[in-house]
Amino acid sequence: KMQRYLLSNSVGPGDLPNLKELNTNEICKIWSGTSRYIRRQLLRKRAVEIGIGVFALVSEHTRVEEGEVLPVERPVFIMSKSLKAFYNLECDETKIPDETSIVHLNFEEIAAKTFFRREIVEHCIRETLLCFAGALRDNKEVEFSFK
């Protein structure tokens, strides 16, 4: 649903009514709670679908001293193929391991841990993603970091 909206509509101020009601600190608290939720799922070896892509762990091998190779898992964000194509974005192809289960954001759990109503959490996340999609569409540089 989110992806279809991002692919067909431009984002205007009227599309972000809930986000405008929150202050920066409140938005940061919600995204911090979202980040913690994603981290917990990654630690359980689950990938997390957020509407525009998936956070997952991928295995890599890194060289350590004297040519020794050490397997490591690295968190990545894999944008959905349709969004990459629509916005004409170049990204490395990363594949989620077949045995990885994929879960969606649990707005109820995030809300309980951040002390916001479920609806506020869901709207904040969706509207923030709409803002980023609009920035991508307009070729603006964006940065969004998680703890």
From TrEMBL:
GO terms for cellular component: microtubule organizing center. Residues 12-89, 102-147 form the CCDC81 HU domain. It comes from the Eukaryota. This is CCD81 protein. The lineage of its organism: Eukaryota, Metazoa, Chordata, Craniata, Vertebrata. The gene is Ccdc81.
